[in-house]
Design goal:
single chain; about 325 residues; Jelly Rolls; 3 domains; 7 helices; 18 strands; globular
């Protein structure tokens, strides 16, 4: 064969040289990576800049996405809060501080108005203004998370409605395949089911803070929020924990909104939908307060379902 393909003999003769050559390439790549690493001092300077200017209403986000763990480490939980890291979207923040490495930017902020760019060595902080921030009247996640007296939870089985009690306990979590953490502070229902605020990984493995309310045993989970302020729209998102929906074999989950006198609408989450947005026109209730009733149901098992919703007015001027 080597007679027909003499170049193979040459390759074989010099193949031993590939091993040290590959080693040199790896050493060079390691050297470059070390020198491209952002010093801790740059992160600290950027954090001091952001903390001195930001308010709790502002978004602090890290770009590119792989830099997010570094941002959480250097900025700490006081800045990289659950509300910011597990945000439903960016539209609800009036201003953003984008902390970025290597010139990266978040696509979700591409249309925002740039107000300032400050550089701290390898870290760049871009201050951006939302051209059309959402005006939030009520945030259902905050009501559930605080165990507010403005929320009641029950389980409905046929004509029987059973109250779910609110309690304080320890967080329950497991490893891969066990689903999201079950919150310690939650409403526990007789016959199965619970409601509480948790953080769920969606189909894209993005963390989302939401109302964790997995329907169980064919019953309906009912959440009643009292004296909710209504505006132009009721908007939100819903999802299933990534491992429960990526196989696309589960039964859909129904999410229905209504008041005592007015049906507002029903949406369904089907496996593969991911972090799916929804919205209902509530103009007929604008300026009023009424109880908002939310019914969650499914015929399937392992429906690790989570949703968030707000009532909102028209977008305010920047």
């Amino acid at each position: 064969m080597n007679g027909r393909y003499p170049y193979l003999k040459s390759v074989g003769r010099w193949s031993f040289a590939l091993v040290p050559l590959l080693g040199l390439v790896e050493i060079g790549a390691h050297f470059i990576e070390i020198h491209r690493r952002v010093p801790e001092a740059d992160w600290v300077a950027a954090r001091l800049f952001v903390t001195s200017r930001s308010t709790p209403e502002d978004l602090v986000a890290f770009a590119p996405t792989w830099a997010d763990p570094l941002g959480r480490m250097y900025f700490g939980p006081a800045v990289a809060t659950v509300a910011r890291e597990g945000r439903p979207d960016e539209a609800r923040f009036p201003r953003a501080y984008e902390v970025s490495l290597r010139g990266a930017h978040l696509p979700a902020l591409a249309d925002w108005t740039r107000e300032d760019v400050s550089r701290f060595g390898g870290v760049t902080v871009t201050t951006l203004r939302n051209p059309a921030p959402v005006s939030i009247l009520e945030d259902l996640v905050s009501l559930v998370g605080a165990g507010s007296p403005r929320i009641r939870v029950s389980r409905v089985d046929g004509n029987r409605e059973s109250e779910c009690s609110y309690g304080h306990g320890s967080v329950q979590s497991g490893g891969l395949g066990y689903g999201p953490a079950i919150p310690g502070n939650r409403f526990s229902c007789p016959g199965g089911g619970f409601v509480g605020v948790s953080v769920v990984a969606d189909l894209d493995y993005v963390a989302r803070q939401c109302i964790f309310a997995p329907p169980s045993g064919g019953g309906v989970l009912r959440l009643r929020f009292s004296e909710v302020a209504f505006g132009d729209m009721l908007r939100g998102h819903h999802t299933l924990y990534v491992e429960a929906e990526r196989g696309k074999t589960g039964a859909p989950v129904s999410l229905a909104f209504k008041t005592d006198s007015t049906p507002l609408g029903t949406v369904f989450h089907r496996d593969g939908d991911g972090w799916k947005p929804f919205g209902f026109d509530t103009g007929q209730l604008k300026g009023q307060r009424a109880d908002l009733i939310v019914d969650i149901s499914s015929s399937g098992d392992r429906r690790t379902y989570c949703f968030e919703a707000i009532t909102e007015g028209k977008a305010s001027a920047p």
